Amino acid sequence: MGPEFGIVGKAGETRILQPPGQLDFSTIDTNHLLLSKDATTVEGLSLDPQHRVRFSLRERRVELDSETDTGLAPAVTEVPGLAITGWKGSLSPALNGRALEMDHDESAHSLAVAPDGKSLVMGSDWTVRKFSADGHRIWSDATESVVWSINIARSGEVVVPAEGDGTFRWRRLSDGVELLAVFISRDGRRWVAWTPQSYYDASAGGDDLIGWHVNNGPDHAPDFSAVGQFRERFYRPDVIEHVLDSDTLDVDKALAKADEARRRKTETVAVTQIQPPVMEILSPRGEFRTSGVAPYPDLPCPLPGSAGDGNQGANR
Q1: Residue 188 and residue 206 in contact, taking contact as beta carbons nearer than 8 Å
Q2: Residue 243 resides in a domain
């Protein structure tokens, strides 16, 4: 569940080969997820590694364990007239005694009441749902992973879950449409923010953190292309900057605003049509050894692993 994998020896000893790669937001502290009024700054508590992680979209910056910011507010979970129960790891959450609609074997994990008290959002094992104050479901949308915490900005326009895959994700409160996501490396040094349409902004090295996994059928290995390989087309800090604007809250509108400022219209193309080439050595196949320098006189040095570089060995 980590996710991680490793080796278990005959005597039961374990050796981790690949530790978890994401921040762990699975804390039982329901008030740890903090938001600024306009939702452009979010702060969450990671259990592994243990840090308070703050991300500012406006400043394009990650801070670890910084001083308390009184401009950030936790989720509201208690409101007079709304008795919400069973939302902390329960299969049967209820509002004023009325069961809230959930899937079979789905547990609720997080809750936030809208600033006007007329609705609430609940995060679960695989869903974010919005309910009216009388318990009717307004919208429901699947998530990438468990929604450990959730909060609604005081503007009443945006809801932000902290999910099990180590991301913060911004959604419109009105209809649940996802606007933006951010993934932060475990050491806080790299981050990448992106829209569902693949426009992104990133710190140095951050565009290696996400990409496209493309299946090639059951008999062939899949391809993976980091988003940085498409930087010329999708690196759009000017789009990310406007996604959460109060007069926007829409990726297409943010794109139009950014295009207007740079006086150039963006052409939309499917990633599968612009994938970088994949190189494969057809001959020789498998492992082989070299015994001399490369047979190309214009190359300045021997092939790696050749006798000529003093590092003879198997190459692939």
Answers
A1: no
A2: yes
pLDDT tens profile 209-219 = 999 988 889 99
The strand order across the sheet containing 108-113 reads 108-113, 119-124, 127-132, 137-142
CA atoms of 37 and 157, how far apart (whole Å): 10
Q: Is the pLDDT of residue 316 over 90?
A: no
Taking 60 as the threshold, does the pLDDT of residue 265 lie above it? yes
The H helix count followed by the E strand count for the chain is 3, 23
The phi and psi torsions of 55 (rounded to 5 degrees) equal -125, 130
The domain total for the chain is 2
| Tokens of residue 253, six digits | 């509108």
What the block records as the tokens of 63 is 């801070």
CB neighbour list of residue 63: distance below 8 Å, 6 or more residues apart: 53, 54, 55, 56, 188
Same domain, 75 and 155: yes
Domain harbouring 121, CATH code? 2.40.10.480
User: Do 179 and 80 share a structural domain?
Assistant: yes
Res. 43: pLDDT tops 50: yes
- pTM > 0.90: no
